[in-house]
Amino acid sequence: MKQNLHVVKVGGHLVNDPEALDQVLTAFASLDGAKILVHGGGRHATELAKSLGLTPKMIEGRRITDPAMLDVAVMSYAGLSNKKITAALQRLGVNALGLSGADGNCIQSLKRPVSDIDYGLVGDISHINTSVFSSLIREGLVPVLCAITHDKKGQLLNTNADTIAAKVAIAMNVIFDVRLFYCFEHAGVLHDISNPTDVISSLTEIQMNDLIDNQVIHQGMVPKLHNGFDALKNGVADVIISNVDAMITINAPKTVLK
Amino acid sequence: MKQNLHVVKVGGHLVNDPEALDQVLTAFASLDGAKILVHGGGRHATELAKSLGLTPKMIEGRRITDPAMLDVAVMSYAGLSNKKITAALQRLGVNALGLSGADGNCIQSLKRPVSDIDYGLVGDISHINTSVFSSLIREGLVPVLCAITHDKKGQLLNTNADTIAAKVAIAMNVIFDVRLFYCFEHAGVLHDISNPTDVISSLTEIQMNDLIDNQVIHQGMVPKLHNGFDALKNGVADVIISNVDAMITINAPKTVLK
User: Fold this and answer.
1) How many CB pairs under 8 A join A and B?
2) Under the phi-then-psi rule, with left for phi > 0, alpha for psi from -120 to 50, and beta for the rest, what region is B61?
3) pLDDT digits (tens, 9 = 90+) for B65-85
4) CB within 8 A of B29, min separation 6: which ones?
């Protein structure tokens, strides 16, 4: 029987709210067994960019990562957020070790090819190094991943944290029984964003597509769900979207992907 | 017989000069056997602070680390410098893994007590976790340390990189035969800063004190030498101060502490 592994993704909104982050990390610390935390970036990078006089470049609503913006992302995600989270987990007795994809070559990516849009220094994941994650976990360490990867040719690349969580979950599922948990500010996928208790308790990909067509599920949630279903289709048995309550309380409301 | 371990400290001046850094990392990549890199911060943090409208606080020529300045140091040292160096070493075939002291609880420190001066969020090293460094090295990984530590109570702390290198060298010398190499922009300790070839080839602590009294050795070099002699007195057999040439060429000019 394979050992259990929790892969928990913490959204950027929570990372930037000290009180909410403390709750999430305390819940994460209470999870038994092997675990990996993946964290988003959130507002801090945008605010840092503004303070430095940089103007975020957007094309068709998508952020473009130019070299100056990549430096900001690396400083914010791999620097401040990653080390604050790691130090906080150490305080809570979790032997956390913060990583970008370059560290131990744990997540390799390819710069996204230029098509209609040139996203700039954005990486699409090409390889998850299960061996280095397994080694660290075997040594009792808890990997804490930020949303920065590298191409093994010396270039750091900005990579979506939801996608990192899904790809890590899929790759590690060969060795462990993985539970992928997307932790964000809501109790799950909502029927109506103005009613935070109206949680869709389970969701298939067909149902998701209907809800997208009917505009029940909106923009921000769509890529997260695609990542979740990608994990599910690739063997990850448990994929859950919810808030901190569902991380520790078995009967808390949540959305389970089926 | 104990295995050899190189502990190489790279000065901040070199970290901030892309061409010089590339030379240093190429030399470091060519070193056989177990190795640890420690890097300073340099100008980037100061420039970042200025860009963010922060005024570096100095008391009696010593920098004071307030919370805003600590965030800048974490972003610059643990974020941008550490990840750029790690990605560059990965390109060179070195399986580098970047670390702050919080990661894997590898370097714990205590906030410096307030005496005449309150240095702010500055940490004096209290414990080097030789077990985590040994585990990483055993897995074929090369630790890359920045000048940030933590107190295990959730607080990150700014810590001198020369001191980190010396304390890591001393602690690891129990397990390995350590060679501590301070790599900076000069060929060694100089008799005369205006004559870069006039290198003091070997130096005892008594000679150092004479040279300090005679003002041959100046401000910036003094703490580095104290750290070097601390390592020497605590069992590290080889302590060298030089530039990149001496890292790879056996007969290159250098200062050897005796």
Assistant:
1) 120
2) left
3) 999 999 999 999 999 999 999
4) B89, B92, B93, B94
Q: By CA distance, what is B68's nearest residue in A?
A: A80
* Cβ neighbourhood burial of B194 (10 Å; 0-12, 13-18, 19+): exposed
Given an 8 Å threshold on Cβ–Cβ distance, is A97 in contact with B99? yes
- Quote the radius of gyration of chain A (alpha carbons, Å): 18
Instruction: Tell me what ipTM this predicted complex has.
Output: 0.96
For residue A116, what pLDDT is reported? 84
Cβ of A154 and B98 within 8 Å? no
Q: How does strand A4-10 pair with strand A177-183?
A: parallel
Domain CATH number, residue A10: 3.40.1160.10
How many structural domains compose chain A? 1
Chain CA centroid to CA A23, Å: 17
Whether this prediction's pTM lies above 0.95 is answered by: yes
Place of tokens 């690349």: A157
Query: Using CA atoms, how far apart are residues A15 and A8, in angstroms rounded to an integer?
Result: 13
Domain limits for position A75: 4-257
Nearest 5 degrees, angle CA B16-CA A99-CA A225?
A: 125
